[in-house]
Amino acid sequence: MVDILHRVGVKSSVAEVYATLTTIEGLAGWWTTQTTGDASQVGGVTEFKFGPGGFDMKVLELTPDKRVLWEVVEGPEEWIGTHVIWDLEQVDDWAIIHFKHEGWKDPVEFMSHCSTKWATFLMSLKSLVETGKGAPDPHDTTISNWH
What we know:
Layout: E1 2-10, H1 14-22, H2 24-30, E2 34-37, E3 45-50, E4 53-63, E5 67-74, E6 83-91, E7 94-104, H3 109-131
Helix pairs in contact: 1-2
């Protein structure tokens, strides 16, 4: 199994970052405007829709201001059963996001695409928290014919 890993600092509190990961409004502000469901409680399912498709994430763990853990329950075959983990720590004036999308069976080309897209969306999250304006789908950076 292989994982996608990223580390991003956001000039804010971990509480602000946590709120962007656990509310529909927050998620829609940085990942995709077409976000519905329940991201605020364990067992909730959040649906993220994009032009070429989408993903459904089941919330497995919520530790306020520390950790958010999702399992992909619907989406592309490569994503089903993988986990998306957001570990947060406060370092001075910075909320540090330790991001992991774990459990990929193989390092396929789609994984490389997704790693780059995760990076662009993490920068969108950073922008949303720091400036109040993110770049969620459909306003995100297109990186290939897969979007």
